[in-house]
Write a structure and sequence with these properties.
The chain is an all-beta fold and about 120 residues long. The chain has no helices and eleven strands. It has strands at about 5, 10, 15-25, 30-40, 45-50, 55-60, 65-70, 75-80, 90-100, 110, 115-120.
Length: about 120
């Protein structure tokens, strides 16, 4: 897999962004996709995940009610809709793939994108 993230940028607090994760080669149909983020000086943390079927999703407590993950397998793309953004959401966001079901730990994900910067600031 070759995962590519896009959609990051600079946004004011309270604003929205939609991140996309696409694979340029193989289908994502068989993979659960997780979104992770890493802020400067902090450890990487899991944000959200969606199973290969799309039937199961999960979210970090810090983003519940504000972020929404979805997938369009016909377009080979997974989305992370981020609303009501806060300065503490500022980080590099990565998507990662693992077999079928979401995993708890980042080292259980086999494929990673290069990341996209999200900056929330006035």
């Amino acid at each position: 897999l070759q995962l590519v993230e896009s959609g990051g940028g600079l946004v004011q607090p309270g604003g929205s962004l939609r991140l996309s994760c696409v694979d340029s080669g193989f289908t994502l149909d068989y993979y659960a996709i997780g979104w992770f983020r890493q802020a400067p000086g902090k450890e990487r943390e899991g944000v959200s995940c969606i199973s290969s079927s799309g039937d199961s999703t999960n979210y970090a407590d810090s983003v519940k009610g504000r972020f929404s993950i979805s997938r369009d397998n016909a377009k080979n793309t997974v989305y992370l809709q981020m609303n009501s953004l806060k300065p503490e959401d500022t980080a590099v966001y990565y998507c990662a793939a693992t077999d079928r079901l979401c995993k708890k730990f980042s080292d259980e994900y086999d494929y990673w994108g290069q990341g996209t910067q999200v900056t929330v600031s006035s």
